[in-house]
Write a structure and sequence with these properties.
Layout lengths: L1 E6 L2 E4 L4 E9 L4 E9 L6 E7 L4 E3 L7 E6 L4 E6 L8 E11 L2 E6 L3 E6 L1
Parallel strand pairs: 2-11
Antiparallel strand pairs: 1-3, 3-8, 4-5, 4-9, 5-6, 7-8, 9-10, 9-11
Length: 119
């Protein structure tokens, strides 16, 4: 299994920046991709950004041009730099890892870190 520990998040004003970090431990050699999801109150969890082992990235349309995902494979960390934050970015942000186990792709989730953007 893969265990995730998140850091970062907090309260920021509109237009500000925050950086989220997530470190994986455990069966990190089986990781396929790392990324971030978020869940706002009353809404479903949604993808924010992901990065594969090869470095291919994928972003939600709502964050393109504002958020940047990066990964350090040697340290098993994934970061999310969030700039030009908007009130609609307010949510609980979850780190996610997809990893292979017995031929299946499984998910591991962090505990969540809160981001609040005040207007």
């Amino acid at each position: 299994q893969v265990h995730l520990v998140e850091s970062g998040g907090g309260l920021v004003q509109v237009g500000g920046s925050l950086r989220l970090s997530c470190t994986a431990s455990g069966s990190t050699g089986n990781i396929i991709s790392m990324g971030w999801y978020r869940q706002a109150p009353g809404k479903q969890r949604e993808l924010v950004a992901t990065v594969t082992n090869a470095g291919d990235t994928n972003y939600a349309d709502s964050v393109k041009g504002r958020f940047t995902i990066s990964r350090d494979n040697a340290k098993n960390t994934v970061n999310l730099q969030m700039n030009s934050l908007k009130p609609e970015d307010t949510a609980l942000y979850y780190c996610n890892v997809k990893y292979s186990r017995f031929g299946w792709t499984q998910d591991s989730w962090g505990q969540g870190t809160r981001v609040t953007v005040s207007s």
